[in-house]
Amino acid sequence: MTDGNTTAHLVGRESGCGTVATKAPVIAIHGFGTYAILYYHLIAHARISAPDIKWLIILPTSHHLDVFAGLLQPSQILCLEDQQSGRIITADPEALRGYAGNIYADIEAAKQVFKHRPGAEQLALSVEIYRIYKRFLQKSGATHVLFGHVETVEGKILISVAEELGLPAMLPTDLRNIGGMCFSPDARESLPSYRQASRDGRAEAVRYIAEFRERPKQALNLVLEASGEEPLPTFEKSLSMRIWNHLRRAIRKPRLFELPLFLISVKYAFPVLRETIRGLRAVRNRRQADMRDLSALPAKFIYYPLQTTPESSINTPAPFFIDQMRAIDAVRFAMPSDCTLVVKEHPASVGVRPAGFYRALKRRAGVVLADCDISSLELIKRAGLTISVTGTATLEAFLLGRASLVLGHSFIAEYLGGVCSLQDLPRRIRERFGAPPSDDEIVNALAEIISTRYPCVLRPADEPGSGATRPTNIRRLLAAVIEHIDRLRDSARPGANSGTLRH
């Protein structure tokens, strides 16, 4: 990958007879949250280094509309909020005849907002969003849809619209402990079609596995080191302006106003008070633990690390398990009677989750609640099997050479035998318990994942310390988008094995 002018990759390719012209892409960006600002800088950079690309921006709200109005033409901008009618109409089921996803599962991607409405109203709003997005993508001539982070109803709907129209979706997927990111074609963190385990990739995988087992890397393993560059502007608005914007939208279209979203914005405006309350909750919740150290571990156990909920890591790819008691009960009912399920809270949730959850958990036979300060890696090493919905613990178990399986979609799922259905769970537990993958399986899987990796990060523009808005990351991100499109095209050619691999 290069940081220079990369347009040539998109508008022409060298062949034995000269340059073969290819159509430059028209990329529609889903500008969710402050990811929109990250993409603002991407477009600004691309106008200089890749001027043949045409950009479109889809903004769920008008929060950043003023920022993009100075960068793109009106025809290149869609503000969903402005297009919505503001009144609830009866949903027409016929409108969803060609819908590529499942509208009801997509609705469940929402967190605190949207789902407090009556079901018929949720469906009617979703159909309206679907029509608006489909009309815009068709009219604008989009060829690709680039996402930030999908954690809302409208984001899931946009993915389904792209699939229905045959437009490649490009969802940045954080490769967690491995570092960097890849572009998934769907909301399930699937790896791109051009993945391939090359000889150099396997050699790198061998080195990585040895290092990881000696000194495990954290799940949030950013590859962009501090370079001394000043971050680019985030165009952050004041608290008073954010409140006014919420109120203005509520007055203009009261049926679209989401009180939970407004309250969340207010809560995050007072971080000291928020963290103080969470700290007090954490002290209370920690007292619920049954097991304080590793010496109290059962002889035979399955490890289940809780995930933060509601959170996009579950809501988007596995909405059935938003209530994680479903997963816990499913494992309890499927595991052998001489086995114990050790559950550990995610450190980020111990001050958030209600105490009633832990009380209900402790009333379930066969469950032991471990203190959240106990090392998750040590539990993985000692467990006969690690099970999660989509959590990083299953990837860590795989890299450590320990048995694991997943109940929801993630990029490691296909290397663990695929997503385990509830029907197959008893059999899969019997087969996988105490039966780790071979080192050769791990090396080949990791080599394939590495072949899809790009050395950049995709984080919210206002996230401190991520380096996402540094110029170097913006250049790398643009180069990654262009290379990914090139490799998708090359892998789609008849007889093609893969795109160009980076060594």
Main features:
about 500 residues, Rossmann fold, six-stranded mixed β-sheet, 13 strands, five-stranded parallel β-sheet, globular, disordered C terminus, about 40% helix, alpha/beta, disordered N terminus, 2 domains
Brief write-up:
By secondary structure, the chain is α/β, with parallel strands linked by helices. Helices cover 40% and strands 11% of the residues.
Detailed description of the structure:
The protein has 503 residues and is an alpha/beta fold. It has two domains: 8-226 and 452-492, 3-Layer(aba) Sandwich (Rossmann fold), CATH 3.40.50; 284-447, Rossmann fold. The chain has 19 helices and 13 strands. It has a six-stranded mixed sheet with strand order 5-4-3-6-7-8, with helices on both faces. A five-stranded parallel sheet has the order 11-10-9-12-13, sandwiched between helices. Strands 1-2 form a two-stranded antiparallel ribbon. Strand 3, helix 2 (35-49) and strand 4 (54-59) form a beta-alpha-beta unit. The protein starts with 7 loop residues before the first helix and ends in an 11-residue tail after the last helix. Mean pLDDT is 88; it is low at 1-21 and 498-503.
